[in-house]
Amino acid sequence: MLLAAVTQKVRQHREPSESDRFGRSESEGPRPPRDTREQCPAIALHVIGGSTVALKLQDKLSRSHVWAPVISMTFRLCRVNFGHEPNRGWRMKKAARLNAIGIALLASLTVAGGQTAAPAPDAPPSPALPTNPTPALAAPTATSIPSPTMDIINSAKVTDTGGSDGVSPAIVRAEVMLDRVHASPGVIDGRDGENFVHALEIYEKAKGLKVTKGLDDKVWSSLLAESGGPVLMEYVLTDQDVEGPFFPNLPKDYGELAKLKAMGYRNPSQKIGAMFHMGEDLLATLNPGVDLSMAGTKILVAEVKRQPIHGTLKTIVVDKKKSQVLGYDREDHVLVAYPATIGSRELPSPSGTYKVKGVAYNPIYYYDPDKNFVQGDNNEKLRLPPGPNNPVGSVYIALTKPTYGLHGTPDPSKIDKNASHGCVRMTNWDANELAHLVKRGIVVRFKS
Prior knowledge:
By secondary structure, the chain is α+β, with helices and mostly antiparallel strands. The protein folds into three domains: about 1-115, no CATH class; about 150-300, no CATH class; about 315-445, L,D-transpeptidase catalytic domain-like, CATH 2.40.440.10. The chain has 15 helices and 13 strands. It has helices at about 1-10, 20, 35-45, 55-60, 70-80, 90-110, 150-155, 170-180, 195-205, 215-225, 240, 255, 270-275, 280-285, 430-435; strands at about 230-235, 300, 315-320, 325-330, 335-340, 340, 350-360, 365, 380-385, 395-400, 405, 425, 445.
């Protein structure tokens, strides 16, 4: 209201004419320069009776972002009414009265010690604006900043076989490219091993290349042409990725496992590794110190989106010597190839030709010591709950030979590194892909 009162007084004041503004005509020559910064404090001093309080008050309130506009309007009258002009006495008195009103109103708003009164609680003061405000910066946006590890592996050359922690950038890149074209290396781990060598050999034969049992320029160029592009990507963990329930302490004894309602993943690391066909060690190497249990976390993973399969599966060959499961089309071209654990000396896999009887996803495992094997001290039939850590993994392809089949595994890193109980073990993701290709009656031939 006080500000409105002063503003109203200013508005009621008559706007001066051109002669009032400038006083002198052109014939009289230019008027002497004036400094309103010097004149206005003098007038304010005159109005309040010569007290130096006026000067302090004007200086203090001029710096206030709240009262600066009022000060500007009040002292603007000084510039209007106190130039070098004729008959200015009455104008000086009129302006003095207006200035007196403005100064008095402002003075009434000061408190002891010369401080301006605080605003009401429901009207917090606006922040003072800087003299030369800088442009506001744009809000930061989420950007993909490649890490050195991602750059090194995505641009790896065939000769880049060395690396930290035993992980070869070239092998990681080759494994991902092989996985994309269905010549699966099993678990992508960045290490030279039999599964990787066999995958290369199968790919080379399928492409009519010389088998070298390792990376060379020709197979490298073929892979780049067919499955090039970045092999690592950034991925943001979702709530679904990290939600459980998890089973960190799964017992090994079948009798104890039978008491559980499910056999889910041990932890987020195992789940994420399976999602991207990766070993948990490589996942940890690419994401050192990263908490994989937090949704929203950005991590590095293998970009393993597989290419479409062109053709129809006709025959499955289980190669015991090469520890491979190969799927052929009607022209005997290899459609898919997977590393596998195939039986053991004590419980060898069968020989001969059989057919696919059916497929069970997320199967229950029925343990029968009279038909299969004896596990620990378990001499009775048991029903083990489903889940990726079930003894047959997340999918089971039953054969016409009783108790035998092709299936997944709870420990993909041990494919072709340990024995099975006569069946054919593959990684859960490879077994799942094969299960979607087979039909009842597809021929399965065991090759010694």
